Amino acid sequence: MSTTSPATTAATVPAARTAAPPAAVRTRDLRKTYGRDDNAVHALDGVDVELAAGQFTAVMGPSGSGKSTLLQTAAGLDRPSSGRAWIGDTDLSGLSETRLTELRRFVAGG
Questions:
Q1: For the chain (length 110 residues), average pLDDT per consecutive 10?
Q2: Phi and psi at residue 68, in whole multiples of 5°?
Q3: CATH topology of domain 18-108
Q4: For 78-83, which contacts have Cβ atoms below 8 Å and span 24 or more sequence positions?
Q5: CB neighbour burial string for 41-68, b if at least 16 within 10 angstroms, e if fewer
Q6: What is the pTM assigned to this prediction?
């Protein structure tokens, strides 16, 4: 009969290595600028983010910090000025509006 508690046993057994869940959404060097020249507003300035599938993520920041712009651009609802966004393994940068709608309807919203 063992005198080791279950918690102690669990602590001494190496955890099984599992692969990280795939990214549901990724962005690389995402930029979104409204206006131009002296009136340019840089809502996103080189944002790199990776949101894992099956996880809840909160995007927080002060008003005007680019939260909605980030989410809309990462979801393909708005186009970035530059940079790239993916939903799963699908690069959104070259997709037509029709294909973006289908992707949101059947993959992201499904």
A1: 43 56 89 95 95 90 95 93 94 92 78
A2: -65, -40
A3: Rossmann fold (3.40.50)
A4: 78/32, 80/30, 80/31, 80/32, 80/44, 81/31, 81/32, 81/33, 82/29, 82/30, 82/31, 83/27, 83/28, 83/29, 83/30, 83/31, 83/44, 83/46, 83/47
A5: eebbeebeeeeeeeeeeeeeeeeeebee
A6: 0.75
